[in-house]
Design a protein that fits this description.
By secondary structure, this protein is α/β, with parallel strands linked by helices. It contains 14 helices and 20 strands. The N terminus and C terminus are likely disordered.
């Protein structure tokens, strides 16, 4: 028996984090444009496409040597594309990226993998799985009740205290897997909303590859960190080590952790209201240890997902045989994932082998062919995974979208309904672009050159016209 896809797979799909080795046409750094977009992640690409389609001059300035942000597809490490960051889309009827992906020839389809629960070396029995589902339903209802309260509290405070043997598993799925944060750090409102990401959509070629394709027509300058943003109105633009770009509007798509890190200076300084809002929407921790196997020693099906009945936070979620390949991933998140990531890639790989050996036997280690790990917290231009609100922080999303003169902030953290997702990031970029375009006003039509009024030609002599006064060609 499988656990609910909405409760498990839907929760794990929220990570909003360009093949790893891909080409992108580099744009020369202009001195002046209509709009500068800071960041070539999902929100930045969406914003720039909207600006360009409106006939405005735009440049995307990206600090990293690639586009895609937290959408990053590694096509070199394994036989199958490996999404190091975001791996799923949602809501095919309303998600603009689903339509765009299909128009670009990408294989987009709903995913319907099986899910298993492991108890030690065996799969959970039907009665045990039903018990887990009932426990998660109770927990979800409690979060729903708390999210409608007058005061937002942490998910940990809202959760029932008598969840029994499934306490740690439930806390892991609803907290770290869904949002990258432990329940004590997570708003009950965000914890409840994170469960509503339905209709999981997969992209066989990888979401990073899709974002790279969508960015291809845009003028993008890579490996060019913005060091200062000027938004006083009289002097609007960005400064980089390669020079300054003057602009009439700026769209900033940096992550909330980068925004609060001080990596980008602002003149004048960013208001405390916006900085406080960003700090309440900090990024969680979500990383992935990828392993390829010789054969199928785990005995799992294509795209099958598995969690365990855990007794503490030292646990993970397994995705097996990705797209029918030998690639499997072990995802770690929340406080434990953050601590493990800080220890480095070797420690992460060692945990993955230890965890799989505990569940499937010690022979698993010998069957591993290759393994790599992501470390998003150490990525200097990201500093984490997806955003999630701390208790009381949900209104901060709207604060971040407030225009600051001609400066507009976008990114998945600003989405009030689809935060933490690629769709939320894309739609936020388009919204910011629309606001910037409205601020700039309509594009002025080019002024036509004045044409001299034709001078009348002199009448021919009566001799030349046969004795008449008619103009030539007047017959």
């Amino acid at each position: 028996m499988t656990i609910s896809r909405r409760r498990f797979l839907g929760a794990s799909a929220g990570l909003a984090v360009a093949p790893l080795f891909g080409g992108q046409a580099l744009a020369a750094l202009p001195r002046e444009v209509d709009v500068v977009v800071v960041g070539a992640g999902t929100a930045g690409i969406a914003a720039a496409r909207r600006i360009a389609a409106a006939g405005r001059k735009v440049i995307v300035v990206e600090a990293a040597p690639r586009v895609g942000g937290r959408c990053l597809t590694d096509t070199a490490s394994f036989e199958a594309p490996f999404d190091r960051g975001a791996r799923f889309l949602h809501n095919p009827d309303s998600n603009p990226l689903v339509r765009l992906a299909r128009s670009e020839g990408f294989d987009i389809a709903p995913t319907a993998p099986g899910q298993k629960v492991r108890i030690g070396r065996r799969n959970a029995r039907a009665r045990e799985t039903e018990d887990l589902l009932a426990t998660m339903v109770r927990a979800s209802r409690a979060l729903g009740d708390a999210s409608r309260g007058k005061v937002d509290v942490s998910c940990a405070a809202a959760l029932p205290t008598d969840l029994g043997d499934w306490t740690a598993t439930t806390e892991f799925v609803l907290g770290p897997v869904a949002t990258g944060k432990d329940l004590k750090e997570l708003s009950a409102i965000d914890g409840f909303r994170a469960q509503d990401r339905n209709a999981i959509i997969g992209c066989r070629q990888g979401l990073g590859a899709l974002l790279t394709k969508l960015a291809a027509p845009l003028p993008v300058t890579l490996a060019t960190p913005v060091t200062r943003i000027l938004w006083s109105g009289r002097d609007t633009g960005v400064e980089t080590a390669s020079g300054k770009i003057a602009a009439r509007a700026i769209i900033l798509t940096a992550s909330t952790n980068v925004l609060t890190s001080g990596a980008i200076a602002f003149t004048p300084e960013l208001p405390k209201r916006q900085l406080d809002a960003a700090s309440k929407l900090g990024l969680g921790s979500y990383d992935r240890i990828a392993l390829s196997f010789k054969g199928n020693p785990l005995g799992l099906s294509r795209d099958e997902m598995m969690i365990e009945q855990s007794s503490n936070a030292r646990t993970a979620v397994l995705s097996a045989n990705v797209n029918g390949s030998s690639l499997c991933t072990v995802d770690v998140a929340g406080g434990f994932g953050r601590e493990l990531s800080a220890q480095g890639e070797k420690a992460m790989q060692a945990f993955a082998v230890e965890w799989l050996s505990k569940l499937f036997g010690s022979d698993i280690a010998a069957a591993i062919d290759r393994q790599v790990a992501t470390r998003w917290n150490a990525a200097p231009y990201v500093l984490g995974a997806m955003s999630a609100a701390s208790p009381g922080g949900t209104p901060s999303r709207k604060v971040l979208t407030e225009p600051l003169g001609n400066l507009f902030i976008a990114g998945e953290a600003t989405s009030e309904t689809m935060w933490g997702t690629v769709q939320g990031a894309w739609e936020s970029g388009e919204t910011a672009a629309d606001a910037a375009l409205k601020k700039l006003g309509p594009v002025k039509a080019p002024v036509a050159e004045k044409q001299e009024r034709p001078r009348p030609k002199k009448r021919r002599s009566q001799e030349a016209t046969g004795g008449t006064d008619r103009w030539p060609g007047s017959r």
